[in-house]
């Protein structure tokens, strides 16, 4: 496992992040506590050091399990958790990015995790109703109090992230060092605005769902693929997504790899800023996913995959590209 510094910080993180959304059996199919311990041990033995969870994952079960199994080795891991999602649907102040919810959510997460600080605290989603100034100041207060070391943001428009970090720069607050977004061959939307923004600002990009909700895992392309639990039925997957999954399977077969490894390796090939979040319900799945770190996709394989799953950048990107020779004439480079 190789390591990178996360965004503009000096924080060393492994190139594959362990996603703990499956840790716990509350609210559906997940991993029991003992299997979570084995996955955490496997991840650590492979050199992984970065874990992602949230205050709402498995109704808090994810954080509680992590707190149990991180006991005695907490400082060896980069622990990140998130807030925004409601902790109590009957309480209007138990959700959102405002100061009150941040404080209550953070204290809840720290108690469950059995620690007095988190390395990375993520805003889980943009809250249109809370001023960015309030969120950024409240996050900075948490950093100054020593409860949080660094902050990041997930699932938000590029302009929101840019404005938030501009505010932080102007006022001496802690800036976002990371961006968390969905990214896979099936969902390349971030290539329009979010990924270029992150690269320009020097942010790390934690990519969730690199397997496209399991569609790229091989479940839907292997004859025995649906023997285990699956989030989707064959009929609910579009023909376009089936075509992409088949292309991933073909490349995997030619390389002697698995579809999951190819799909994860593709996200890593797109930008040095991208750090895939790999989740699993068993040590077998996690071991397979972790092997993606050693897989190198050649230019031909990359071209085949991207030809099957093109992304339209849309306006203004396509318009600028099309008109640049005319607009800039001899100055066009």
TrEMBL record:
Q: Quote the Pfam families the UniProt record gives.
A: Aldo_ket_red
The NADP-dependent oxidoreductase domain is annotated at: 15-307
**InterPro entries assigned to the protein according to its UniProt record, in alphabetical order:** AKR_Detox_Biosynth, NAD(P)_OxRdtase_dom_sf, NADP_OxRdtase_dom
The answer to whether UniProt assigns keyword Oxidoreductase to this entry is yes
Q: Does the keyword Oxidoreductase apply?
A: yes
Q: Which UniProt keywords apply?
A: Oxidoreductase
Top-rank taxon: Bacteria
What's the protein here called? Aldo/keto reductase
